[in-house]
Hints:
This protein is α+β, with helices and mostly antiparallel strands.
Amino acid sequence: MTLSSDNRQDDRRNPAHMLEAVLREWRGPQGHGGDLWVFAYASLIWRPEFEFAEQRFATLFGYHRALKMWSRVNRGTPECPGLVFGLLTGGSCKGVVYRLPQAQVSSALPALWAREMPNGVYDPKWLRCQTAQGEVKALAFTLSRRSPNHTGVLSEDTYRQIFSDSCGRYGTTREYAQLTYDKLRTLGIQDHALGKLLALVSG
């Protein structure tokens, strides 16, 4: 399930309105929601910054993790953009889902939103994630290929330049990618595409 098309169209780049839409859909017709699941596939795995009641390994079909989103603040600058991960359509993605208790959602979600959606870059969607304990519907931060923040296809030389030079307020693109790769491996998740990319820029 995606957020309602009217809300996404009218408030596409208004993070506050997009958060309101998410909260409305979480609460549902009865005006109250249950526990809320969040799908983590990159930095949320190694730095969630919120309290959760449960954590599960999860597989998301129909999307894959890709280091193809420009970062001009956190991992780069406007003059020397860096990269961060996004969820692009196609393939599958292994990650983690976190369960936020109902009583904490109203306070925890705005803090998460301020971190992930300061500029309304991602397209938040409700997606079905498979876990060993059963399927859960989780909030996931996806990236549209139509977004101006989507890099498109990058050459090997461009990746090398970005990994060599790009640094933002939270550090370098190289550090961000390596932290994600290392944490995934610790969890037993192999991201072969990311491994090949790190080997490329280290060569």
